[in-house]
């Protein structure tokens, strides 16, 4: 994208800045900021997709670290998009280098086609809930702050946490809590939730969850409601359902020398990322017929390689930033193989 084209895209595609919305946003500490910036310092010139833009901390660090790239930021949260518009308005250095779209990241393919972007220099996925979503009580993500049972990252979505908590069958709830959070007391918690219906607030739900867990287990592993809140949030936003296919789209779209980096925060996300990366390595020399980003003349010449061993935040960062404690960073890089004869 040229600077002129990027500026036009900003004016055409981004919603108008809403000061009332963006003023509610809080500052935050991006997890593994230096490691992420370093990851993209040597990627080829072009567009890096920040698929979970949030408050834009990672995006700004990447832009600073590599002046030859631009950022396409995706986020389904209206507050994040409003904040991005404020960033662009306040910082002239971002104009022409930052474009944002309000979409869920599984729309990546569609957005790239709309913007006529054939290849990308890389992509970043910082999974899970963002700090502002947790901090704003009325968003309903936090078990510590009293608010409505919402948990929708995109408030245009129909399904909310209240629907899951009050309408799902007990067996469905137990399955979700087990699958999305590895909660060993999932059945007890699901039974308690059904018995306590109707539940309308986050603090009420947290109280029900805590009471359902045996007293000895409450004293270890952080807040007893953390895993169940996580599981419900993942269900509301279908986070695990869309992750694998979107990662594959990003890998297919990445040019040689580009990288896809993923920050995960729990075992379910981590398993999916490992599976997708391993599959890409295993089928490294296979023709990617389904990819719209590989020209016919290039079929058989590209592969994915150099999957890095998972990195963890430093002990200092884990002490200073609570969200960093469970983070893992995985990176995969596009490489070349000999063309087939």
UniProtKB/TrEMBL annotation:
The keyword Hydrolase does not apply. Residues 1-20 are annotated as: Disordered. One of its GO terms (biological process) is rRNA base methylation. Keywords: Methyltransferase, S-adenosyl-L-methionine, Transferase. GO terms for cellular component: cytoplasm. InterPro entries: RsmH (IPR002903), SAM-dep_MeTrfase_MraW_recog (IPR023397), SAM-dependent_MTases_sf (IPR029063). Gene3D superfamilies: Putative methyltransferase TM0872, insert domain, Vaccinia Virus protein VP39. GO terms for molecular function: rRNA (cytosine-N4-)-methyltransferase activity. The keyword Hydrolase does not apply. SUPFAM superfamilies: Putative methyltransferase TM0872, insert domain, S-adenosyl-L-methionine-dependent methyltransferases. Belongs to the methyltransferase superfamily. RsmH family. PANTHER family: 12S RRNA N4-METHYLCYTIDINE METHYLTRANSFERASE, S-ADENOSYL-METHYLTRANSFERASE MRAW. NCBIfam families: 16S rRNA (cytosine(1402)-N(4))-methyltransferase RsmH. This is Unannotated protein. It comes from freshwater metagenome. The lineage of its organism: unclassified sequences, metagenomes, ecological metagenomes.
